[in-house]
Amino acid sequence: MWGLLQKLNKNLILAIPAMMLLGFLYGQTAPVGWLKQTIIPLTFLMVYPMMVNLKLGQVLAGGDLKAQILAQVINFAVVPFAALGLGMLFFGGNPYLMLGLLLAGLVPTSGMTISWTGFAGGRLAAAVKMTVVGLILGSLATPFYVEWLLGSRLSVDMLAVFRQIAVIVFLPMFFGWLTRRWLVGRYGQAHFAQRLAPRFPPVSTLGVLGIVFIAMALKSRHIAADPWTLLELLLPLALLYVFNYGLSTLAGRWLLPRGEAIALVYGTVMRNLSIALALAMGAFGPQGSEAALVIAVAYIIQVQSAAWYVRFTEAIFGPAPQPAPA
Q1: What are the tens digits of pLDDT across the range 164-203?
Q2: Residue 259 domain-assigned?
Q3: Would 117 be classed as within a structural domain?
Q4: What's this model's pTM, rounded to 2 decimal places?
Q5: Residue 322 within a domain
Q6: Which long-range contacts (CB under 8 A, 24 or more apart) does 298-301 make?
């Protein structure tokens, strides 16, 4: 079982489309109403393991203030408005598809921000801080952004959104912090980092795949009636990611040293689609499944683009500096 989870976690590029296909087939052949009851448990399963590995204490560490400010400016002053503009351009007649694109651009950073930064040879400490700060700020700001930017187009229950964020972000964050403290106290920091911490992300993958399955199953009949739906979602999402990569890459090259520049790219382009999915499914009623479908498709683009960007990191930022000889 553990080996299977690890393989799924490393092959999201294949696992997510496969789960979307299974969800589509299930929605064609079986009742889907009961699936809504599983959204909150799956959401907790998705978010809690990520929170166990979140290093809240590193927020106060210094040394990269420019990178941190730049990351949050891109995350909250640029990307949400780019997502809104693309949503108005492509989905002007469907506010829930606009909502999906906006949510995909509103909650920055995920656990993969740190992983991809490491794969590309970036500065991990900067990526960790961007992840924690972006997650907290994004969770607090999302209800206000949705009300401000889309309140005239759809009904936004601010209390319901805040309640959902408390359940899917801050409650798992609290239990994750308790779990981390208990495990480090019992087994020591070294054992936790080497043996226990790597076991949590694959568990989170189960929640992600479950939510993607539900989102696809709930919209299965709609997609069958209009097969071009998924293709229509791909173009605005691809444009959003291209814009985000381009902006963050140029800002990093011009303004930051190599390691922090790489962290900036992954700290702004990697969105926390797990939380965005949970919000869409839990806070916006049955029509939230339309927004969730946009976010499910975003998973495919995000994972693939992050992997390809690693391959071109040296061409973009130059080779990593060699350590000085002992």
Answers
A1: 888 878 888 889 889 999 999 999 989 998 888 888 877 7
A2: yes
A3: yes
A4: 0.81
A5: no
A6: 298/104, 298/237, 298/271, 298/273, 299/12, 299/16, 299/208, 299/212, 299/273, 300/13, 300/16, 300/17, 301/234, 301/237, 301/238, 301/241
